[in-house]
Design brief:
The chain is an alpha/beta fold. The chain contains twelve helices and 22 strands. It has a four-stranded mixed beta sheet with strand order 20-21-1-22, with helices on one face. A four-stranded mixed beta sheet has the order 2-13-15-14, covered by helices on one side. Helix 9 links the parallel strand 16 and strand 17.
Length: 409
């Protein structure tokens, strides 16, 4: 795997990029398209995760290896479990086999699904025998991952009686559940989400229609970070809307605190550097945990302190992202403390350590979150190809914005 060295000669950014469609929207819509073939999809994500979803849905082999694609593992588990006559073994990478799935499996078993563990209890690989499911009520812990909830919501319209999901505990990442509701409604499926209860009504067929996927806001976060750390910036990125379904669109408000101004012109988002950062940033990111790494690195680059909370889901991602952030930011000279649910960064007093090689732990967001620091000091990113999981053209787009991106041994 390659290491890339990043530098920028001027710290002035100007350019435009077209970011691939949201993998969160794409993977939800691909499940709905499999259930309702009259749906046509435009601007699908070209990420590894979405390719894994497409391959999984069309695979004729009995064993399907989805690699690192956590969303694909969770969504396909429910899809195959509720497809009568299907027999599949779902497996993935070594890290995927360490990521828990027991909450989802328990919920599916509670409504009658036939799922067994091939190796370790509570973890993939899974042996799934699809069957008709008629149970219409299920209870699910809501404080671990919204993807478990979404997985059940997506297959619910094809169940004879639909599905009512009773959520237990504080609900994690509500915007992602709202996104799922909105996409279901967009293709004609009735949903209700009130308090701790979600109801998805049965739907025999869907009216043929075309749905365009909005570009990915999580991927846009790295452009916000670059704009914040640059001396001046004028960046345009396409296929974004002001009233986005994606929870990470809170970037617009968050990065105002770091000196970035956002405007919309049609479906183009314009970013410009307008001022200084606040001295301290305090955020509860329980609704948008995927942008925590980017914000932490932005604050470190600026030299401002931050307290980020609501981060308990980061421990079960591609890596333990809180531990990884602590390790890599410490290499650069940060004074940082993390708990199981939060990150606390002191204002930087010393220059950033140059020529540090950032380890990415097979985590695409680690690679991209640290890349903007190349505006300030020469930095190296190990295992750089990992960005293909969500943003395959990331390094090319940095080149368009004036970064020197060179391979090193």
């Amino acid at each position: 795997m390659s290491t890339l060295r990043l530098t920028h000669a001027s710290q002035h950014l100007q350019g435009h990029c077209t970011i691939t469609g949201s993998k969160s929207e794409s993977n939800r819509l691909l499940i709905l398209q499999a259930l309702f073939p009259g749906i046509t999809l435009l601007n699908l994500s070209n990420s590894d995760d979405t390719q894994a979803m497409q391959q999984g849905l069309t695979a004729t082999e009995e064993t399907i290896d989805i690699g690192h694609a956590g969303t694909t593992m969770r969504f396909l588990t429910s899809y195959f479990a509720t497809t009568p006559g299907v027999e599949k073994t779902l497996t993935g990478s070594k890290r995927m086999q360490e990521r828990p799935i027991k909450i989802l499996v328990d919920a599916l078993r509670a409504i009658g699904a036939d799922i067994s563990y091939v190796k370790n209890e509570g973890y993939p690989p899974l042996r799934i025998k699809g069957k008709k499911i008629e149970t219409e009520q299920v209870e699910l812990a809501a404080n671990v991952s919204s993807q478990y909830i979404t997985s059940l919501m997506l297959i619910a319209p094809k169940l004879p009686n639909g599905l009512t999901i009773h959520l237990v505990g504080e609900i994690t990442s509500i915007p992602y559940i709202n996104m799922t509701c909105a996409l279901l409604q967009k293709v004609g499926i009735r949903t209700e989400f009130k308090g701790q209860t979600i109801r998805v009504f049965p739907q025999e067929n869907s009216t043929p229609q075309t749905v365009e996927v909005e570009s990915d806001w999580s991927s846009a976060s790295y452009h916000f970070s670059m704009a914040a750390l640059a001396d001046s910036a004028s960046i345009s990125i396409k296929n974004y809307v002001e009233d986005s379904l994606q929870g990470d669109s809170v970037l617009v408000d968050i990065y105002k605190q770091l000196g970035v101004f956002s405007t919309f012109e049609g479906n183009t988002l314009h970013l410009s550097k307008t001022g200084d950062a606040q001295a301290h940033i305090a955020l509860d990111l329980i609704k948008a945990p995927d942008i925590a790494q980017t914000i932490a690195v932005s604050c470190f680059g600026w030299g401002v302190s931050c307290d980020l909370t609501g981060l308990h889901t980061l421990k079960i991602k591609e890596t333990d992202r809180l531990v990884a952030l602590h390790t890599e930011l410490t290499k650069l000279g940060a004074d940082i403390r993390v708990t199981d649910t939060s990150l606390h960064l002191a204002a930087r007093k010393n220059p950033i350590v140059e020529e540090v090689a950032i380890d990415t732990y097979h985590d695409h967001r680690m690679a991209m979150a640290f890349a903007p620091l190349g505006l300030l000091v020469p930095i190296r990113i190990n295992d750089a190809e990992v960005v293909s999981k969500s943003y395959p053209t990331f390094w090319e787009d940095l080149g368009h914005l004036g970064f020197a991106v060179t391979a090193v041994k």
